[in-house]
Amino acid sequence: MPASHPPSAAIPDIVINDAIQPFHLSGSPVRGRLVRLGGLADAILSRKALGAAAHLGGQALSLVAGMSAGLKFEGALSLQVKGDGPVSLLVADSTHDGAVRLYMRLAEDNRPHDLPEMEPRADIMFGKGYFAFTIDQGPKTDRQQGIVTLEGASLSEMAEHYFATSEQLPTLIRLFSRFQDGKWDAGALVLERIADEGGRESHDAAEDHWETAKTFAATLTAEEVFNPHLTHSALLYRVFGTLGVAVAPPRPARFGCRCAREKLLSVLRNFGDDDLDEMAENGVITMSCEFCGVDYRFDRNNIAPDPV
């Protein structure tokens, strides 16, 4: 039976061709990505009633889009935040070519009802838990994962704590989200300090450049990120102009779910006959993808458990 989905969960068909702007600062051991998701953020975040928690979803999408643009291989980067707060689980991931997706689970007994215009504190929404990044380079390579406890009041601070603790990579992360005129928007600025070469004097100069870049990055405002009249280059020059901004070709971002009927069928075959019978309703087993909302329906009579 073909896959189907309700009209309210229509799969977003939108590509932002210049969503991610890679750049580096000339003469400095600093590289970065400016992320502006625009209509893609609204297409994804408006699919479910997340309330104010959608701010975290938009920031997470911007974060994985920015980080995955730095991958040197074909694969995917996934962020998972799990806690005991109103948002019990957030999963966002992006492939190397900008296919992003998001899933958020809100605690049934503690759903946030704040107005979406009000951005909530991440530490309150997540509570106590963990923050993890996973890198997947394909079926022939083991996944790499780093996990740290949740530290910080914002998702930006939690991400910086992860890179400082798990990767020992000096990183500055600014995450932005907005709900205005009934539309969502999200963006990010990611700075990374790359390794410098040379002696002590060279190292000291590189460290000064890094600290200066962080100071300049702290001046970036949400109004600038969401200003449609500011091009990426103009915005980066406004923030880092005297440091010498060099931009690379922009990268696209789009909605991209990697669910597949064959994958779900292989999952069902791990269950025994009794479990499969219990899942079936009128002879049909329905499985829904939490990322895209597509319902996959399987004829119970055509599913046989894999032999032990």
Automatic annotation (TrEMBL):
Q: Enumerate the InterPro entries for this protein.
A: Heat_shock_Hsp33 (IPR000397), Heat_shock_Hsp33_C (IPR016154), Heat_shock_Hsp33_N (IPR016153)
Please report a single Pfam family linked to this protein: HSP33
Q: Which UniProt keywords apply?
A: Chaperone, Cytoplasm, Disulfide bond, Redox-active center, Zinc
Look up keyword Lipid metabolism and say if it applies: no
Instruction: Tell me the protein's name.
Output: Hsp33 family molecular chaperone HslO
